[in-house]
Design a protein that fits this description.
The complex is a heterodimer of chains A (about 120) and B (about 110). With about 120 residues, chain A is mainly β. Chain A has no helices and eleven strands. In chain A, strand 7 and strand 8 form a beta hairpin.
Chain lengths: ~120, ~110
């Protein structure tokens, strides 16, 4: 299947700083990528839909000025957590669809990024 | 988006067949049913996807009745490495995918 990578796999930062997480589709072009957040022992919560060449669509309750999403190319989407605080500590996961898979609606997930804000 | 309901947890002994059911009473006509497996601190991994009837691949089978209001993931002869959380989100027409609570499967030696 298609491969999605994330970088970094884990990051520790100080409160008030910004952190950028990259999501790449390695062997396909993704016009749409998705960003999820997952707290311990909870399910994945969709944060936003990232569209190549246009603004991201944020889910209700997700601050767009705090979680900046940029989808500048068909293989790269970035999530920047601005002015991070300890409550932003979480597991961030991206996913992408491969438009080349006809008839299917499968998402390919990245390995996730563990963010710890001190 | 249609909501899915699954048992919170299940236990099974090694070597047994495990069936995990997902309810989706309000499934839309263009929704596919997809099952994912997630290990701690990893992204979800695709297991199987179907629209209706039965689908089988090398790791699992997916049974979907005619009314499509539920689906059952069948894992044959589970091993300890199958201990994970299993999700059954619905998706269709390139819309966003919403995950339910998932089922935590614990395989016991």
């Amino acid at each position: 299947g298609a491969v999605v990578s994330q970088h970094p796999s884990r990051v520790i930062c100080k409160s008030g700083t910004s952190v950028k997480i990259e999501c790449r589709s390695l062997d396909f072009q993704a016009t749409t990528m998705f960003w999820y957040r997952q707290f311990p022992k909870q399910s994945l919560m969709l944060m936003a839909t990232s569209n190549e060449g246009s603004k991201a669509t944020y889910e209700q309750g997700v601050e767009k000025d705090k979680f900046l999403i940029n989808h500048a190319s068909l293989t790269l989407s970035t999530l920047t957590v601005t002015s991070a605080h300890p409550e932003d500590s979480s597991f961030y996961i991206c996913s992408a669809r491969d438009p080349g898979l006809a008839g299917a609606d499968e998402q390919f997930f990245g390995p996730g990024t563990r963010l710890t804000v001190l | 988006l249609a909501k899915t309901t699954q048992p919170v947890s299940m236990d099974s002994y090694e070597g047994q067949e495990v069936n995990i059911t997902c309810s989706h009473n309000n499934i839309a006509t263009n929704d596919y049913i997809t099952w994912y497996q997630q290990f701690p601190s990893q992204g979800p991994r695709f297991i199987i996807q179907g629209y209706k009837t039965k689908v089988t691949n090398e790791v699992a089978s997916l049974f979907i009745p005619a009314d499509r209001k539920s689906s059952t993931l069948s894992l044959p002869r589970v091993s300890l490495s199958d201990t994970a959380v299993y999700y059954c989100p619905l998706s269709g027409g390139y819309q966003k995918v919403t995950f339910g609570t998932g089922t935590k499967l614990q395989v016991i030696p």
